[in-house]
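Write out the 3D structure for:
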Amino acid sequence: MLNPAGLTLLIIGLGLELAFIKSVSLNCLLAGCCLLYLLCYRRVKLTTIALLLLVTFPLALGSWWSFLAFGRTNNWHNAWIYGSRIYAYLLLGASLTLTNSVEDILFNLHVHLKLPATFVYGLLAAFNLLTSIKNQFATIRYSAQIRGRNYHLWQPELYLRIILVALKWSADLAQAMTAQGFSEGYPRTRPSAKPFPKWQFYFIGLCLISYAWGGISGSWW
């Protein structure tokens, strides 16, 4: 099993290569490998994968149709390239986010790749506040209905109130972190992280070189 930090490096590298390689076959190969990794190796629920693919279908269809209908040259090839690329990116990201928690990803990036502690704990605080923001969102809409008003998702007044609440929470959070002994720039106790053996670096390099070679060779459709 790849370390979350190594998996992040692999996904970033493959994502950059994917942006420049114009090959339908390699897009499908990458998406298929990610799908096998999720279903067979990490045992992610098939319903979860199916839901992801179904939600992404309108985006892939829109990209495919735009190049097919409005492209100037090689319309069919370009349409399949960009349509399949969306699914390749989706399954690349799912290989990381569906198999590792936010804490595991951030702590391993901090320990093994020296991601700044301030950034790590700031992101953790933001993710932990998502549930509170969702509850506050419902509270704001409910209080508005009591006054005879309805806030819809497209109205800026709703987001203005959420931003004001979030600003207040940020000040409270900063005070709480200071009270717990967090000081920016000072050393902290290192969080627990999974081992990152050297063979994983070689494996990541081999995957990136192989995929780049496949794209450069130009023998794929």
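Residues 46-70 form the longest helix (25 residues).
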